Here is the input.
Amino acid sequence: MYTVEEANAELPDLRARLARVKESRQQILRASERIRGAVEADGGGQSGGDYWEALAALRTEIEHFAQRNILLRDAETGLLDFPGERDGEPVYLCWRLGEEWVAWWHPLDTGFASRRPL
Here is the structure.
């Protein structure tokens, strides 16, 4: 469980990690397109190497989130949920890249559309 303060303390590191997630994801998408065209000829060549490097980088970042019990909901927008508590009930503290602080929450059985201000 995270308090709002603990979640906010994670943000500087998470901002950098989310940038790497987004870049790795984009590299994977670009490389997969190149691989499709090259796979019949030579198995992917350099494009294949780029793909595997980006995949390894993405895996490293996602494992970091999992180890910290932070849920990556959307890699493109940098949407994260931190398990937390509000009024004695378990909730998700919700934050998205571009927001200054963790300022939202939602019940466990809902998502971004149900966010409410703290």
In short: The chain is about 55% helix and 20% strand. The CA atoms of residues 65 and 101 lie 18 Å apart.
